[in-house]
Protein backbone atom coordinates (compact mmCIF):
# COMPACT_ATOMS: atom_id res chain seq x y z
CA UNK A 1 0.00 0.00 0.00
CA UNK A 2 1.09 3.59 -0.63
CA UNK A 3 2.84 5.25 2.27
CA UNK A 4 2.77 9.03 2.45
CA UNK A 5 6.38 9.96 3.22
CA UNK A 6 5.38 13.55 4.04
CA UNK A 7 2.72 12.71 6.63
CA UNK A 8 3.47 14.35 9.98
CA UNK A 9 6.60 16.14 8.77
CA UNK A 10 7.06 19.75 9.98
CA UNK A 11 7.81 22.50 7.49
CA UNK A 12 8.66 26.18 7.90
CA UNK A 13 7.40 28.09 4.85
CA UNK A 14 8.66 31.59 4.02
CA UNK A 15 6.86 33.42 1.19
CA UNK A 16 6.22 37.16 0.87
CA UNK A 17 3.30 36.90 -1.55
CA UNK A 18 0.12 36.33 0.48
CA UNK A 19 -1.72 34.44 -2.27
CA UNK A 20 1.19 32.13 -3.05
CA UNK A 21 1.89 31.52 0.65
CA UNK A 22 -1.73 30.58 1.39
CA UNK A 23 -1.94 28.35 -1.68
CA UNK A 24 1.28 26.49 -0.86
CA UNK A 25 0.40 26.12 2.82
CA UNK A 26 -3.02 24.68 1.94
CA UNK A 27 -1.51 22.17 -0.50
CA UNK A 28 1.24 21.13 1.91
CA UNK A 29 -1.26 20.53 4.69
CA UNK A 30 -3.29 18.37 2.31
CA UNK A 31 -0.14 16.25 1.86
CA UNK A 32 0.02 15.70 5.62
CA UNK A 33 2.66 18.31 6.46
CA UNK A 34 2.53 20.46 9.58
CA UNK A 35 3.15 23.89 8.05
CA UNK A 36 4.22 27.06 9.87
CA UNK A 37 3.99 29.91 7.32
CA UNK A 38 5.79 33.27 7.53
CA UNK A 39 5.61 36.35 5.32
CA UNK A 40 9.24 37.40 5.87
CA UNK A 41 12.69 36.02 6.53
CA UNK A 42 13.01 38.07 9.73
CA UNK A 43 9.85 36.62 11.27
CA UNK A 44 11.03 33.11 10.43
CA UNK A 45 14.42 33.86 12.00
CA UNK A 46 12.73 35.08 15.17
CA UNK A 47 10.82 31.81 15.30
CA UNK A 48 13.93 29.65 14.87
CA UNK A 49 16.28 31.31 17.36
CA UNK A 50 16.11 32.44 20.95
CA UNK A 51 15.18 36.11 21.62
CA UNK A 52 18.84 37.10 21.81
CA UNK A 53 19.12 36.50 18.07
CA UNK A 54 22.80 37.41 17.94
CA UNK A 55 23.65 34.13 19.67
CA UNK A 56 21.67 32.11 17.10
CA UNK A 57 21.11 29.43 19.73
CA UNK A 58 19.05 26.49 18.60
CA UNK A 59 15.66 26.18 20.30
CA UNK A 60 13.75 22.93 20.70
CA UNK A 61 11.41 23.41 17.73
CA UNK A 62 11.20 20.19 15.72
CA UNK A 63 11.57 20.80 12.01
CA UNK A 64 12.00 18.60 8.91
CA UNK A 65 11.89 21.15 6.08
CA UNK A 66 12.48 24.81 5.38
CA UNK A 67 10.88 26.09 2.18
CA UNK A 68 12.04 29.61 1.31
CA UNK A 69 13.19 31.98 -1.41
CA UNK A 70 16.84 31.57 -2.40
CA UNK A 71 17.51 35.12 -1.19
CA UNK A 72 16.80 34.13 2.44
CA UNK A 73 20.53 33.95 3.14
CA UNK A 74 20.37 34.86 6.83
CA UNK A 75 17.80 32.15 7.47
CA UNK A 76 19.88 29.61 5.59
CA UNK A 77 22.99 30.65 7.51
CA UNK A 78 21.18 30.25 10.84
CA UNK A 79 19.99 26.75 9.90
CA UNK A 80 23.54 25.73 8.93
CA UNK A 81 25.06 27.21 12.10
CA UNK A 82 22.45 25.50 14.29
CA UNK A 83 23.32 22.17 12.65
CA UNK A 84 19.65 21.30 12.30
CA UNK A 85 18.82 17.92 10.79
CA UNK A 86 16.58 19.33 8.08
CA UNK A 87 16.21 19.60 4.32
CA UNK A 88 15.76 22.85 2.39
CA UNK A 89 13.72 23.68 -0.70
CA UNK A 90 14.85 26.92 -2.34
CA UNK A 91 12.28 28.71 -4.50
CA UNK A 92 13.95 30.40 -7.47
CA UNK A 93 13.06 32.39 -10.56
CA UNK A 94 14.00 30.61 -13.82
CA UNK A 95 16.58 32.16 -16.11
CA UNK A 96 15.32 33.73 -19.34
CA UNK A 97 16.82 30.91 -21.43
CA UNK A 98 15.14 28.31 -19.26
CA UNK A 99 11.77 29.95 -19.87
CA UNK A 100 12.42 29.40 -23.57
CA UNK A 101 13.15 25.73 -22.96
CA UNK A 102 16.92 25.39 -23.01
CA UNK A 103 19.60 27.33 -21.21
CA UNK A 104 22.12 27.95 -18.50
CA UNK A 105 20.23 28.17 -15.23
CA UNK A 106 23.31 28.55 -13.03
CA UNK A 107 22.65 32.10 -11.87
CA UNK A 108 19.21 31.14 -10.64
CA UNK A 109 19.75 27.60 -9.36
CA UNK A 110 22.84 28.29 -7.27
CA UNK A 111 21.77 28.12 -3.66
CA UNK A 112 22.91 30.61 -1.02
CA UNK A 113 26.02 29.48 0.87
CA UNK A 114 26.51 26.87 -1.86
CA UNK A 115 29.76 25.58 -0.37
CA UNK A 116 28.67 25.91 3.28
CA UNK A 117 25.58 23.73 3.08
CA UNK A 118 27.76 20.64 3.25
CA UNK A 119 25.68 17.48 3.54
CA UNK A 120 22.46 19.39 4.20
CA UNK A 121 20.01 18.00 1.61
CA UNK A 122 18.61 20.78 -0.55
CA UNK A 123 16.82 21.23 -3.87
CA UNK A 124 15.55 24.10 -6.01
CA UNK A 125 12.00 24.54 -7.29
CA UNK A 126 11.33 27.19 -9.91
CA UNK A 127 8.66 29.86 -9.85
CA UNK A 128 5.80 29.86 -10.55
CA UNK A 129 5.69 26.99 -8.05
CA UNK A 130 3.62 24.07 -9.25
CA UNK A 131 2.24 22.03 -6.38
CA UNK A 132 3.26 18.77 -8.05
CA UNK A 133 6.86 19.88 -8.45
CA UNK A 134 7.09 21.04 -4.85
CA UNK A 135 5.65 17.76 -3.60
CA UNK A 136 8.11 15.78 -5.74
CA UNK A 137 11.01 17.81 -4.32
CA UNK A 138 9.90 17.23 -0.73
CA UNK A 139 9.45 13.50 -1.35
CA UNK A 140 12.85 13.29 -3.01
CA UNK A 141 14.49 14.93 0.00
CA UNK A 142 12.72 12.45 2.32
CA UNK A 143 13.98 9.51 0.27
CA UNK A 144 17.51 10.93 0.09
CA UNK A 145 17.66 11.37 3.85
CA UNK A 146 16.32 7.86 4.44
CA UNK A 147 18.90 6.32 2.08
CA UNK A 148 21.72 8.22 3.76
CA UNK A 149 20.60 7.09 7.22
CA UNK A 150 20.32 3.48 6.04
CA UNK A 151 23.75 3.69 4.45
CA UNK A 152 25.29 4.99 7.69
CA UNK A 153 23.61 2.36 9.85
CA UNK A 154 24.17 -0.52 7.43
CA UNK A 155 20.54 -1.52 7.86
CA UNK A 156 19.03 -4.72 6.38
CA UNK A 157 17.23 -2.66 3.73
CA UNK A 158 20.55 -1.60 2.23
CA UNK A 159 21.94 -5.13 2.44
CA UNK A 160 18.97 -6.30 0.41
CA UNK A 161 19.68 -3.55 -2.09
CA UNK A 162 23.23 -4.82 -2.50
CA UNK A 163 22.01 -8.23 -3.58
CA UNK A 164 19.05 -6.99 -5.59
CA UNK A 165 18.84 -9.14 -8.76
CA UNK A 166 19.67 -7.42 -12.04
CA UNK A 167 17.66 -7.81 -15.24
CA UNK A 168 20.97 -8.29 -17.06
CA UNK A 169 21.39 -11.96 -17.92
CA UNK A 170 25.09 -12.16 -17.01
CA UNK A 171 25.92 -13.24 -13.42
CA UNK A 172 28.19 -10.20 -13.17
CA UNK A 173 27.43 -6.84 -14.78
CA UNK A 174 29.52 -6.35 -17.94
CA UNK A 175 32.25 -3.73 -17.97
CA UNK A 176 30.56 -0.41 -18.42
CA UNK A 177 31.88 3.14 -18.47
CA UNK A 178 29.52 5.58 -16.78
CA UNK A 179 29.50 9.37 -16.54
CA UNK A 180 27.34 11.08 -13.91
CA UNK A 181 26.79 14.83 -14.24
CA UNK A 182 25.12 15.99 -11.00
CA UNK A 183 25.79 19.10 -8.91
CA UNK A 184 23.98 18.02 -5.73
CA UNK A 185 26.45 16.19 -3.46
CA UNK A 186 23.73 14.17 -1.75
CA UNK A 187 22.15 13.03 -5.03
CA UNK A 188 25.57 12.13 -6.41
CA UNK A 189 26.32 10.00 -3.34
CA UNK A 190 23.00 8.15 -3.61
CA UNK A 191 23.46 7.47 -7.33
CA UNK A 192 27.04 6.25 -6.84
CA UNK A 193 25.91 3.99 -3.99
CA UNK A 194 23.22 2.34 -6.11
CA UNK A 195 25.52 1.85 -9.11
CA UNK A 196 28.26 0.31 -6.98
CA UNK A 197 25.75 -2.05 -5.36
CA UNK A 198 24.78 -3.17 -8.84
CA UNK A 199 28.43 -3.92 -9.58
CA UNK A 200 29.37 -0.87 -11.66
CA UNK A 201 32.63 0.75 -10.59
CA UNK A 202 34.07 2.44 -13.72
CA UNK A 203 32.37 5.75 -12.98
CA UNK A 204 33.41 9.31 -13.85
CA UNK A 205 31.70 12.21 -12.08
CA UNK A 206 31.15 15.84 -13.05
CA UNK A 207 29.73 18.47 -10.73
CA UNK A 208 28.32 20.67 -13.47
CA UNK A 209 27.67 20.82 -17.21
CA UNK A 210 30.95 22.52 -18.10
CA UNK A 211 32.98 19.77 -16.40
CA UNK A 212 30.80 17.12 -18.07
CA UNK A 213 31.62 18.55 -21.51
CA UNK A 214 35.32 18.62 -20.58
CA UNK A 215 35.21 14.94 -19.56
CA UNK A 216 33.64 14.09 -22.92
CA UNK A 217 36.32 16.04 -24.77
CA UNK A 218 39.15 14.46 -22.77
CA UNK A 219 37.86 10.98 -23.67
CA UNK A 220 37.22 11.59 -27.36
CA UNK A 221 33.47 12.15 -27.17
CA UNK A 222 30.31 10.65 -25.66
CA UNK A 223 30.82 7.20 -27.24
CA UNK A 224 33.68 6.56 -24.80
CA UNK A 225 30.96 6.03 -22.20
CA UNK A 226 28.22 3.41 -22.27
CA UNK A 227 25.80 5.38 -20.09
CA UNK A 228 25.66 9.10 -19.27
CA UNK A 229 23.40 10.33 -16.45
CA UNK A 230 22.74 14.04 -16.97
CA UNK A 231 20.94 16.23 -14.43
CA UNK A 232 18.84 18.87 -16.17
CA UNK A 233 19.61 21.64 -13.67
CA UNK A 234 23.29 22.21 -12.93
CA UNK A 235 25.55 25.23 -12.34
CA UNK A 236 27.08 26.93 -15.39
CA UNK A 237 25.36 24.59 -17.88
CA UNK A 238 22.14 22.61 -17.49
CA UNK A 239 21.67 19.15 -18.99
CA UNK A 240 19.61 20.42 -21.94
CA UNK A 241 22.35 22.84 -22.96
CA UNK A 242 25.04 20.18 -22.53
CA UNK A 243 23.22 17.85 -24.93
CA UNK A 244 22.71 20.68 -27.40
CA UNK A 245 26.48 21.33 -27.44
CA UNK A 246 27.19 17.59 -27.68
CA UNK A 247 25.05 17.38 -30.83
CA UNK A 248 26.76 20.42 -32.34
CA UNK A 249 30.22 18.96 -31.73
CA UNK A 250 29.73 15.20 -32.11
CA UNK A 251 26.64 14.89 -34.31
CA UNK A 252 23.06 13.85 -33.59
CA UNK A 253 23.65 10.13 -33.01
CA UNK A 254 25.41 8.80 -29.91
CA UNK A 255 26.50 5.23 -29.24
CA UNK A 256 25.76 5.60 -25.55
CA UNK A 257 22.60 5.74 -23.48
CA UNK A 258 21.91 9.35 -22.54
CA UNK A 259 19.76 9.55 -19.41
CA UNK A 260 17.95 12.74 -18.37
CA UNK A 261 17.74 13.06 -14.58
CA UNK A 262 15.14 15.39 -13.08
CA UNK A 263 12.79 15.82 -10.15
CA UNK A 264 10.16 17.10 -12.59
CA UNK A 265 7.90 14.16 -13.42
CA UNK A 266 5.66 16.06 -15.83
CA UNK A 267 5.01 14.51 -19.26
CA UNK A 268 5.96 17.69 -21.13
CA UNK A 269 9.41 17.67 -19.50
CA UNK A 270 9.94 14.05 -20.51
CA UNK A 271 8.93 14.77 -24.10
CA UNK A 272 11.20 17.83 -24.20
CA UNK A 273 14.12 15.63 -23.10
CA UNK A 274 13.52 13.13 -25.92
CA UNK A 275 13.13 15.94 -28.45
CA UNK A 276 16.50 17.31 -27.35
CA UNK A 277 18.28 13.96 -27.84
CA UNK A 278 18.08 12.03 -24.57
CA UNK A 279 17.42 8.30 -24.99
CA UNK A 280 16.21 7.62 -21.45
CA UNK A 281 14.62 9.54 -18.61
CA UNK A 282 14.75 8.99 -14.86
CA UNK A 283 12.84 10.82 -12.13
CA UNK A 284 14.36 11.63 -8.78
CA UNK A 285 14.54 10.26 -6.16
CA UNK A 286 16.84 7.57 -7.57
CA UNK A 287 15.37 4.06 -7.36
CA UNK A 288 17.32 0.85 -7.83
CA UNK A 289 14.76 -0.67 -10.20
CA UNK A 290 14.78 2.43 -12.43
CA UNK A 291 18.57 2.47 -12.69
CA UNK A 292 18.66 -1.30 -13.31
CA UNK A 293 16.28 -0.82 -16.23
CA UNK A 294 18.72 1.59 -17.89
CA UNK A 295 21.32 -1.17 -18.14
CA UNK A 296 18.97 -3.65 -19.79
CA UNK A 297 20.56 -4.00 -23.24
CA UNK A 298 17.15 -3.73 -24.92
CA UNK A 299 15.77 -0.95 -22.77
CA UNK A 300 14.50 2.29 -24.21
CA UNK A 301 12.22 4.86 -22.67
CA UNK A 302 11.77 6.60 -25.99
CA UNK A 303 8.73 5.08 -27.59
Overview of this protein structure:
This is Response regulatory domain-containing protein. The protein has helices at about 20-30, 40-50, 75-80, 95-100, 105-110, 130-155, 155-160, 185-195, 210-220, 240-250, 265-275, 290-295; strands spanning about 10-15, 35-40, 65-70, 85-90, 120-125, 180, 205, 225-230, 255-260, 280-285. The chain is α/β, with parallel strands linked by helices and about 300 residues long. It folds into 2 domains: about 10-150, Response regulator (Rossmann fold); about 165-295, 3-Layer(aba) Sandwich (Rossmann fold), CATH 3.40.50. Helix 1 (about 20-30) links the parallel strand 1 and strand 2 (about 35-40). The radius of gyration is 20 Å and the shape is elongated.
- The class by helix and strand makeup works out as alpha/beta
Q: Which shape, going by the Cα principal axes?
A: elongated
**How large is the count of helical segments?**
12
What is the CA-CA span between the terminal residues?
A: 29 Å
Beta content: 15-25%
Mean pLDDT score, rounded? 78
CATH-defined fold name of the largest domain: Rossmann fold
- Regarding quaternary structure, what we see is single chain
Low-confidence stretches: 52-56, 96-110, 155-171
Q: Write out the strand line-up for the largest beta sheet, numbering strands in chain order.
A: 2-1-3-4-5
Tell me the Rg in angstroms.
20 Å
> How many domains is the backbone divided into?
2
**What CATH architecture of the largest domain would you give?**
3-Layer(aba) Sandwich
Domain Response regulatory: 177-299
Keywords: Phosphoprotein
Modified residues (4-aspartylphosphate): 231
InterPro entries: CheY-like_superfamily, Sig_transdc_resp-reg_receiver
Amino acid sequence: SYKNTLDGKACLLVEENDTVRESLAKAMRAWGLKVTPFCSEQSALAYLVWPEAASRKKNNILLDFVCCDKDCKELTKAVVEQKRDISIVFIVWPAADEINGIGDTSNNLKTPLQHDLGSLPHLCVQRPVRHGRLKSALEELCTTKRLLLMDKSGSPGMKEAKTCPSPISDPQPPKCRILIAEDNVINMKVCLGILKRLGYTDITTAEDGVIALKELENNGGPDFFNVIFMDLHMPRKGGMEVVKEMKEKYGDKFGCKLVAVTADAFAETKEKCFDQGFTHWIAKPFRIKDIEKIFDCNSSDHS
